[in-house]
Amino acid sequence: MNRWQIGDVKITRVLESENAFDMTMLIPDATPEAIRAEDWLRPNFADEKGGAKLSIHALALQSQGRRIIVDTCVGNDKRRPGFDTMNMLNTNFLSDLTAAGFARESVNLVLCTHLHLDHVGWNTMFVDGRWIPTFPNARYLMSRAEWEFWGPSKDPAIGDSVRPVFDAGLVDLVETNHRITDEIWLEPTVGHTPGHVSVRISSKGQEAVISGDLMHHPIQLGHPEWKCTFDADPDQGCRTRRAFMERYADQPVLVFGTHFASPSAGHIIKKDGAFRFRI
Ligand SMILES: [Zn+2]
Fold it and tell me: Domains in the chain, ordered, with CATH?
C-alpha cells in the first residue's frame, strides 16, 4: 500500500495484482526489443530482457468528507474466459481495502474511469448466488457517454459488475467534466472508450491527475503514437494521449498511471522532444 497527500486530499493505493505482462497484447509495437531499448524504464517498469510489468490497483481518495474509490479492479469470482490472469480471481483485495481504512460500508462514492472489466470488478461481489453491490452506501459515478456506449452490450463485465448497481438504484450518470468536490473533478480523455475520463486533484496549490487507461505503461510516453489494440477509437486514443502528455509534462502535477507498476505515481518530463516518466 502507498499513500500520498495532495494538499488536503489523501490518496491511498490498494493493489489487486502486479504481474509481468506481454505488452504486445495491448500495444503491438511494444515488443521486448523496443522495451529493452528504453533503459529509463528499468527497474520499476521493465526488466533487462524487455519484459514489462503492469499493475491493477484502486486509488482511494479522501476529500471534504467524501471517501472515494477510483476504479474497482477485476474483482473476485468473475468468469473472464480468454483473460487467464483475470479469470475467477480469489484475492485479498477487499480485506486489504479494509486494512487500509476503507471498510466497504464506509465508502460513499465509487468512480469508474471507464467500464472495462478491470475497472468495474469490485463494483459487485458474489453472495448467496447473486451479484450485489460491494459498496452499499456509495453512489456509483459513471460518465453518461460511457454508459450509452456499453449499456446495450452483452459484455460479461457489464452484466455482472455494472447492471447490478444500476438495478440497486446506486448509479449517477454524469458528464465527463463533472466536479465531485472543490478539490476533485473529471476531465474527458476519450479514445480508449467513448466516455473515458481522467481524474484531476487540486488542493492548497498541490496538483495531481489519475490517467485512467489513456495509457497503460510508461513506455507509451516514449511512443505516444503507438496504437492500443483495446482503444475503441485508436486514432483518437493517440491524440488524447499526446495531448495529456503535452499538458502535464514539466508541470508540478503528480501523475498516477492507472496500470503503472509500483510506485504508480511520478512526473512526466520532456527532454529533447521526448516524454519520460520520472518517479
Ligand atoms: Zn484497464
Answer: 2-278 (3.60.15.10)
User: What does the longest C-alpha to C-alpha distance in the chain come to?
Assistant: 58
Residue 195, helix vs strand vs coil? coil
Cell of 219: 513506455
Q: What does the pLDDT look like over 98-120, one tens digit per residue?
A: 999 999 999 999 999 999 999 99
**Residue 175 CA to ligand 1 centre (angstroms):** 21
Where would I find the beta strands (DSSP E) of the chain? 2-6, 9-21, 52-63, 66-70, 109-111, 124-127, 130-133, 139-143, 171-174, 179-181, 184-188, 197-203, 206-210, 253-256, 265-271, 274-278
CA–centroid distance, 272 to ligand 1, in Å, is: 30
Rounded-to-integer distance, Cα 201 and Cα 209, Å: 6
Which among 163, 238, 146, 259 has a CA at the least distance from the CA of 197?
146
CA of 9 to the centre of ligand 1 (A): 24
pLDDT, position 11: 98
Give distance in angstroms: CA of 98 to centre of ligand 1. 23
Q: What does pTM read for this prediction?
A: 0.97
Single-letter amino acid, residue 156: P
Residues in the chain: 279
